[in-house]
Hints:
alpha/beta; about 50% helix; about 10% strand; 8 strands
Amino acid sequence: MQRPLADEIRPKTLDEVVGQRHLLAPGAVLRRLIESGTEANMVFYGPSGTGKTTIANIVAERTHKALYRLNATTATLQDVKDIIADVGTLLAPGGVLLYLDEIQYFNKKQQQSLLEFMENGKLTLIASTTENPYFYVYGALLSRSTVFEFKAVPPEEAEPAVLRALEIERERAPLPLEWEMGLPLQIATACGGDVRKAVNAVELLSQAAQLKKGTLFISKEDAAQVSQRSAMRYDKGGDAMYDIASALMKSLRGSDPDAALHYLARFLEAGDLVTPCRRLLCSASEDVGMAYPQAVAIVKACVDTAMQLGLPEAQLPLAQAAILLATAPKSNSVVEGIGRARADVRAGRAGDVPRQLQNVHADTTGFDHQQHYLYPHNFPGHWVDQQYLPDALKGVKYYEWGENKTEQAAKAYWEKLKGKEL
């Protein structure tokens, strides 16, 4: 039984690792640590298939420690105790290097069980996670470790690994194996930065290669079918989802309709309607606000239509909303205004509601039986000068007029009516 291609092609040296130049280029900190035979505890954070396990293997060879592997999705506290029991024995005379994959699935007690042995140097921990370690890794363990962030491998850096995988499959094949021009780059691009996924695609395509005149042939059309949607990195509730949501919101705020449609498309391809709908509704008030107040109603109508239609038709009203928000004039006066008001309330700057604004029941229960409320609609222009803020906040300004045409027109209207500069 032959080894899986992804295992056979796994790099043995740092120079063979594709991607992660910011960590492994000559002179980079992680490379220097590995080459010096470091026994430092480390947390590798990043997407799947970016070399975290490979580099852990290389570190183990450099330190000459017994390498143990655990996956936190299935490992138990007893598994940790069994590994620690080997420390100092013939099985691990120089200590243990524990590679703990998906550490975010270990609870606090399980993570705490490692601390004592990390302190005395008998156990070196290399933990990997696809989620933000500052949210999921116990603080005491994190303070004893150095975090290195791995990034998705760009297509041009993943392509050599794909070529190497194809050459191995060519050697394995019972007949001559050929592939269409441009196939390696296509696979490298479609893998979405996951080299393991790209290598697995090569293995699958080689097994399904077409026989043409005594030669096995892999076409770009076959590669497109195998890698369909594989470039999507999306894990509902995970870092990828929040990153895309953040990118969508910032693209809307930055008035870039093309970027907004791109990130919206990622949600649609993942089948997630709820998250982009929330971001679109929020942006209508947060980023457009008083510069185009009607945006709230239009976006709400688009979202309601999308939820009634469902996918794939929902893409149309959501795209309409995204383009509208991205191209609309911008104002954050709503955000600034409510932010200042809430800051005062949280700080205890409030005071009693002015007598003239209190509920009418005060007229029959209070000492002062006259409310003194002036009804604005009884006055010219439906406005009358009257104090509305509590005495403690009299004269405070929370809302500042935006510089856009809509808010400046409203400002001019009220300045004329009130006879003073606002």
